[in-house]
Design goal:
Distance between the termini: 29 Å
Order of helices and strands: EHEHEHEHEHEHHE
Shape: globular
Structural class: alpha/beta
Helix content: 40-55%
CATH superfamily: NAD(P)-binding Rossmann-like Domain
CATH architecture: 3-Layer(aba) Sandwich
CATH topology: Rossmann fold
Strand content: 15-25%
CATH class: Alpha Beta
Largest sheet: 7 strands, parallel
Oligomer: single chain
C-alpha cells in the first residue's frame, strides 16, 4: 500500500475471523495494527505474534466497545504508544438473539439495536478528533447482507446492521469536508466465523448453491475489501458499500 507505513489502524473484534484476517492484511501493507478483543486474550496475542513474526507491528488491547469509558482508555493506550488512530475498522460482533419476531422480546430486539449503535458511536467518537485534526482518516464498518435481504430468525441482527449502514452514510456526508471517508463492507455468509456456526450444513449448502462463485466467503475475502477502503490512495470513495458475497446478491 503506497505510503501506508506508519498509519495506525484499530480493528475491533480482531482476535478471530474477519477481524483477525483484516489485522494481518493491514499489517502486511505497512500499518501498525491495534488488535482489539473482549475476552479472547490468548487468541488476540496469537494474532499479534503472527503479525510480528511476519515483520509487522501490532498490539493487543482489551476493551468492551459498548462501553465509552473502556473505548476511551483503549484509545489513550494507543495514543501513548503510537499516536492517533488513522484507520478504524469496526468489526466487533455484538451478541444477538436468533429467533422469529413472534418469539422475541423488546429487550432482545432493542438490546441488539442499542448495543450495535452504542459500540459504533463509542469507537467513532473516540477516533474522530485525531482524524479530523489531521484532515485524514478512514472509517470502515463491517455489515452483513441481512441488512438488505431478510432471512428467518435474523430480525435482530439485520435490523441493527441496517441502522449501522444508515449511520455510516450520514457520517460520510458530514465528515467528507474534513478529509475522513466512511464506507461499509457488507459480507455475505463467511466461513470460519462465529456467524457461520448459525447456519447448519444444509443451510450452508443452499447458500453455496445460490452463489455464482460457488463457495462461501472467507475472512480473507472480506479483509481485501476493507484494505481497499483503508488505502492511502483511495481518496474519493465515501458513503459506499462493498458487497462481498460472491454474487449471491447483486444490487
Amino acid at each position: 500500500m503506497t505510503g501506508a507505513t506508519g498509519r495506525v489502524a484499530l480493528v475491533t473484534g480482531a482476535s478471530s475471523g474477519i477481524g483477525a484476517a483484516t489485522a494481518r492484511l493491514l499489517a502486511a501493507r505497512g500499518m501498525r495494527v491495534v488488535v482489539n478483543y473482549l475476552r479472547s486474550a490468548a487468541a488476540a496475542d496469537e494474532v499479534v505474534a503472527g503479525i510480528e513474526a511476519a515483520g509487522g507491528q501490532a498490539m493487543a488491547v482489551q476493551a468492551d466497545v459498548r462501553e465509552a469509558a473502556a473505548v476511551e482508555t483503549m484509545v489513550e493506550q494507543v495514543q501513548a504508544a503510537w499516536g492517533g488512530i488513522d484507520v478504524l475498522v469496526h468489526n466487533a460482533l455484538i451478541p444477538f438473539a436468533v429467533k422469529p419476531f413472534k418469539d422475541m422480546t423488546w429487550d432482545e430486539l432493542g438490546g441488539k439495536l442499542d448495543g450495535e449503535m452504542r459500540a459504533a458511536f463509542a469507537v467513532t467518537n473516540a477516533v474522530l478528533p485525531a482524524m479530523t485534526g489531521q484532515g485524514w482518516g478512514r472509517i470502515i464498518y463491517i455489515s452483513i447482507g441481512l441488512s438488505r435481504q431478510p432471512r428467518p430468525g435474523m430480525v435482530a441482527l439485520g435490523t441493527a446492521k441496517a441502522a449501522l449502514v444508515q449511520f455510516a452514510r450520514f457520517l460520510a456526508q458530514e465528515l467528507g469536508p474534513t478529509g475522513v471517508t466512511v464506507n461499509i463492507v457488507e459480507a455475505g455468509p463467511v466461513a470460519d466465523t462465529r456467524m457461520a456456526s448459525v447456519l447448519d450444513q444444509e443451510q450452508q449448502q443452499r447458500q453455496v448453491a445460490a452463489t455464482p462463485l460457488g463457495r462461501l466467503a472467507l475472512p480473507a475475502d472480506v479483509a481485501q475489501a476493507v484494505a481497499f477502503y483503508a488505502a492511502e490512495d483511495n481518496a474519493f470513495m465515501t458513503g459506499t458499500t462493498a458487497a462481498v458475497n460472491g454474487g449471491m446478491s447483486m444490487y
